[in-house]
Amino acid sequence: CSIARVNKCRITNVAGRGIMVTGSAGVIITNNELWGNEGDGTGPSPHASDEDIHILSDFTTNPGPPAVPIESREVIIENNLCLSNNHGGIYLVQIGASFRVNNNTVVSYLGNDPYNNGEASLSTNNQRKECITLAYDTDEFKPGEVQHECTCVGNTCRNSQWSAVYCNNNTSTAENPGGVKATITANQISNVCLEDGVGLSGWKRNGITLEAFRDFVVSSNMIDKIGQAAAGEDPHGGIQIATSWHRTPKDPPTNSGKRSYGVVTGNNISDVNGQGIKLANRINDLVVSNNVVTECTEEMLLLTPRSADSDSRFSSLTIQGNRFVS
Which three-class secondary structure state does DSSP give residue 123? Predict the structure, then answer.
């Protein structure tokens, strides 16, 4: 469909997704209240399945071969309350371009009455994996298109087992070098990375995680109360940026693909059981400036290639004007 609006709805106690959009463009989702939607119980343990708001492209109408997806694109998600104790608050997976995820409150609450029940603020009572997933495996679209541009501005995120804001778009094909173009600004993030299990990719648990990007800005976010990872696991962190070089199948394994550019500036990170800002894997053309990082139990700024990646590198990296306070 195209040009649809979901506005001022109250959606509660759904054993599944609260709002789901598939293969649609021009959709506006605003001013809705969602809570008590705890999924159908089939999600990966210990996380409940399903999300309050779920957007994806349609891969079933034209399955091919070759598959021709109907993209979801030009979607606005603003001023919603996503208060369920489920897999995710807002989840964008295998989608197109031009998304605005702004001014939402994504906080996990217990039960079906957020106004009287408490928040799901502990690892033992929390089912929410990420608060907002901006991109997940977007690799189906044509060269020359505007690829997955999105804004994530002014959201309040609390109480998630993994990251508050997560981008995982590190697949690449001949048609798409991978990566997300994102502006992640002025979000309030607190009490996240509650997961303390073993063997569960601790490095993916941060206040903000960008697994792959092309051009991005992460600025003016307030991040605090990052939970402790299990002993022997990779530490959690305030912000992690990784994999800014993108290969295509035409490239030899040790050569780089397209360059990308990023800015991490003006963020305030505090009370971290782990590391403040983490930079890992093929970082280039990145500016880290004017951030304030305080009260970390481990490194406040860490540059490290992951040992499993044989093509790790740093280039054109500028770090200036930051304040680190123990």
Answer: helix
- Model pLDDT for residues 265-318, shown as the tens digit of each residue: 999 999 999 999 998 766 777 899 999 999 999 999 988 765 454 455 566 789
Alpha-carbon distances of 245 from 63, 107, 150, 261, 280, rounded to whole Å: 31, 33, 20, 10, 11
Tell me the two tokens of residue 147: 């690829």
Task: Please provide the distance, in angstroms rounded to a whole number, between the alpha carbons at the two ends of the chain.
Answer: 52
What one-character DSSP code corresponds to residue 23?
A: S
Residue carrying the six token digits 């304040």: 323
Q: Residue with structure tokens 């880290």? A: 288
Residue 123 has phi, psi (to 5 degrees) of: -60, -35
The answer to whether the beta carbons of residues 186 and 153 sit under 8 Å apart is yes
Residues 52, 177, 173, 168: is their CA dihedral positive or negative?
A: negative
- Residue closest to 8 by CA, chosen among 36, 26, 28: 28
Tell me the pairing of strands 2-7 and 25-30: parallel
C-alpha to C-alpha distances, 166 to 89, 110, 259, 321, nearest whole angstrom? 12, 23, 21, 26
Token pair 């990646």 is at which residue?
309
Which token pair is 30? 């605003």
Phi, psi of 172 (to 5 degrees): -145, 145
| Spatial CB neighbours of 102, under 8 Å, sequence gap ≥ 6 | 77, 78, 79, 151, 152, 153, 154, 155
pTM of model > 0.85? yes
pLDDT score recorded for residue 280: 79
Cis? peptide before 46, omega within 30° of 0: yes
For 247, half-sphere exposure in the C-beta direction (CA atoms, 13 angstrom radius) is 12
Pairing of strands 2-7, 165-168: unpaired
Tokens of 249: 């199948």
DSSP code for 266:
S
Tell me whether strands 105-107 and 222-226 are parallel, antiparallel or unpaired: unpaired
User: 15: buried, middle or exposed (CB in 10 Å: 19+, 13-18, 0-12)?
Assistant: exposed
Q: How far is CA 179 from CA 95, 161, 216, 307, 310, in A?
A: 12, 24, 10, 22, 20
